[in-house]
């Protein structure tokens, strides 16, 4: 019986390879359209938040209905291309973000299982090493770096001498 088993999955190697191949294909297909910003650039440019999407949609409608009111320094063709691109990319991003959250949640549970059971094993090995069980000490020595022993700080003999 396992100490903790929050989740149990087994992804066949062939399926994992197929998924990674498919993800690579998606990356390759999107690569010509993607931009990589520096952290400074990410701070510099605003983001079209969800609360402004409907407003931008209304602007697009008004621009289409009254192109004579579009200022000459705004390219209607570039605006329409940007609008079409964001309309295509946002649903993709939503799917990728949902997948990312599901992957993170799954990995979190698996990680919790691994950590809890690894600590249980380590504590058992530590106990067995203390009892001089054959073979336990080298394993304990190999694993103990993750839990450095805390030594009590000795009082400084000169600290109270004033």
Kindly describe this structure:
The protein has helices at residues 13-30, 39-44, 53-65, 76-130, 136-143. The protein is mainly α. The chain has a domain at 39-146. The chain is elongated and about 90 Å long.
How is the secondary structure organized here?
Elements: H1 13-30, H2 39-44, H3 53-65, H4 76-130, H5 136-143
In short:
The protein has 162 residues and is mostly helical.
Largest sheet: none
Strand percentage: under 5%
Q: What count of helical segments does DSSP give?
A: 5
The N- and C-terminal alpha carbons lie at a distance of 61 Å
Question: Which regions contain 5 or more consecutive residues with pLDDT less than 50?
Answer: none
- As a whole number of angstroms, the C-alpha radius of gyration is 29 Å
Give the proportion of residues in helices: 55-70%
Structural class: mainly alpha
Output mean pLDDT.
92
Coarse shape? elongated
How many distinct beta strands? 0
Could you state the order of secondary-structure elements as H and E?
HHHHH
């Amino acid at each position: 019986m396992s100490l903790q088993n929050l989740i149990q999955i087994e992804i066949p190697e062939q399926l994992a390879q197929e998924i990674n191949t498919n993800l690579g294909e998606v990356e390759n297909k999107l690569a010509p359209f993607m931009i990589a910003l520096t952290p400074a650039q990410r701070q510099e440019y605003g983001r079209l938040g969800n609360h402004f999407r409907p407003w931008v949609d209304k602007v697009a409608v008004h621009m289409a209905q009254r192109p004579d009111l579009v200022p000459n320094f705004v390219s209607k063709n570039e605006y329409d291309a940007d609008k079409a691109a964001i309309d295509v990319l946002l649903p993709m991003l939503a799917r990728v973000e949902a997948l990312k959250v599901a992957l993170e949640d799954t990995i979190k549970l698996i990680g919790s299982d691994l950590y809890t059971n690894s600590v249980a094993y380590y504590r058992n090995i530590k106990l067995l090493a203390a009892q001089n069980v054959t073979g336990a000490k080298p394993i304990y020595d190999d694993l103990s770096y993750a839990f450095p022993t805390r030594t009590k700080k000795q009082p400084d003999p000169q600290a109270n001498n004033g």
